[in-house]
Amino acid sequence: MTNSTRDRISAAFEQELATSPVPPGLRSQAVRAAVSQPHHAAREPRPGLLALVAVVLAVALVATLVIGSHVFRSSPIPARPYSSVPPAPRSGASLVYDEKRAELVLFGGSDVHGKVVNETWTWDGKGWRFERPKMAPAPRDRAVMAYDSARHEVVLFGGMAQIAGSGKGGQTPAVDTWVWDGATWKEQHPFHIPDVGFDWPPSMQFDPISQTLLMYGFTKSTSEGFTNMKPETWEWNGLDWIQRNPPSTPQQSGKMFGDGRHTYLIAGGPARVSQLWQWDGTTWDLIRSATGSIVGVPSSAAFDQSHGQLVVLTGDTWTWDLPSGWVRQHPQTQPPDAGYMEYFAPLQRVISWGSLWSNWNNDLWAWDGSNWKLLQAGNMPPLPSPTGVLGPTAPEQAAAFIRSTVTASTPVLLPSWLPAGLEARTTATADGFSVDYLSDQRDKTITLGIIVANPPPGDDKSSDTRVRFRNAVASKGASSGYAEYFVYDASAPTSTRWLMWIEPGTMANPLLKGPGVPYFLSADGLTDAEFWQVANSLQ
Amino acid sequence: MVLSTASTDGAGRIQAARAGDETAFDALIGPLIPSAYKLAVVFLRDRDEAQDAVQEACVKAWRNLDRLRNESSARQWFLTIVANQCRSTRRARWWSVMKREWVARRDESLDDSEEDHIDLDRELSRLPDTDRAVLFLFFYLDLPLSDVAKILKISPQAAKSRVHRAVTKLRLGMVEVLK
User: Which of these, A258, A350, A270, A262, lies nearest to A304 by C-alpha position?
Assistant: First the structure.
């Protein structure tokens, strides 16, 4: 390896990283946030304390046995005790409602330390129990799990299993099948094994027509770009996995749900498109396709049997039903994150526990059709409030915040015209800012900022042109006086579109110093005329 | 007891940080934040996600200080946590598409050396994240292969072959561009 190679690659990284300088306050912010958390070592009990606890427990155990043998000799088996604490927060876990036992079952996931676990927890509407089954699947996250209404058991398939010494990061795709009978896990030994991977999570749901569990997923990825995965549909009949070859099938990852009569799958993608598919026992039928307000697949979703609606959490609360489509709800309060959701029949509520993506939330919420209620608070301390973040506010308040915060870059451009009724969510530092303007139903969104995240690539329907715009400085993307203008789907009047240019001006950050200030303006749901009205109003 | 960190050595700093001393923790981890952030940007290609990943990694480092044996291994230890966090972040955003660089385009005003540089930028941005990470750790941070291997949780042999493979991809890519 020559020094020239080293120098050239280092220089290329240097160039790339120049557009992402280390945020000035990151060190102090990260350190402060860390030390505000409970200290792991400090929480470990001392040996002396452990001995004392052991003695007390031993005495309690003996007393219980002696007294119990006399007093409770003819009593029924006592109820299993509730845990004094809820399950620790975890990402990548699996949650399902066990109809027979009227309990939620939570399995696996990665805990706050990144440790992949194989814990089983149940929640019966009153409290959490930490189960101690004789057998359990290996520790894993992203397993797919559903309740089998024909055989009255919970079925778990695959996931990314933690097996020492195998796979990247010690995790490897699992292809085993297990059932939970309320007391223990039992491994199944089917003749066939679904060829689905877990880069895009599969979804599973009981199908009342075929009386089987239906699983929809994608084959394993063999490339980093996730470009070569094929959709597959499988059925679990209690003994074996049978692959179905439907004449038509969704092509995007999806979330399945059932209304008791049919099995549906909401599929999505990076664009704002929702497709509703229905399984008729033989094939997937596309029954509705609409440009909507939910980006991608609703991972955090459950069918609310009381109200006949799908309830989705994205940070906002959405409901979906056939006549109405997507409707953003306005509850007084709501879970902060997309949680693990299930309909809990005994309470006739949709439950959301924890957070799918973060390891910092183990609250339990219930949705009654119009509001969320915190049923059981978790035991995690609140995270420190982020700095430089504002919103939602009116655009005028966002503008004042940006102009007072961004002091090291000039000019600061903001729109003097916006479609009516938008709210703003803003992030700003001395060097730059990013502001999102959102309509109430999220069907119109505008993002403006100095150096924002790079947009996704287009496809053969996209149009990428250079347009005269302001006094733009020459850049890699466009010549002097021009901006790069990108429309994802030129045939769609309100397709996503963006404009990127270098505004004449200065930035004080030495890593960003260059000819001018890089700006980015993008929009979803705006016509070309509306978009340019916003762009031309920047001042 | 919270130790004073004003004049403590590496072992003292770790001990003080374990005891809850913010200054000691800052002295231990703070200098590593820029490298950690850059690694996260290389991995995730998104500034906001990189920032979140570093903050989350800091929390995990704080909670797992008892696993840090000596200060000389702090960099490798912390970058391992950051790399893990980046993997988790990447897994969590399975729904999103890969974000692209603002791809460099031919500009008449550029001389040959600049063009060559732009080609390399472009090829680097096209590499899989894992290849980018191995190149970043080995070439940019100048870490020994043994540390690269530990951070990415692969064997030293795998780290070595991954560096060679990534460099080969870069060169092939550039040849294709020149054709």
Answer: A350
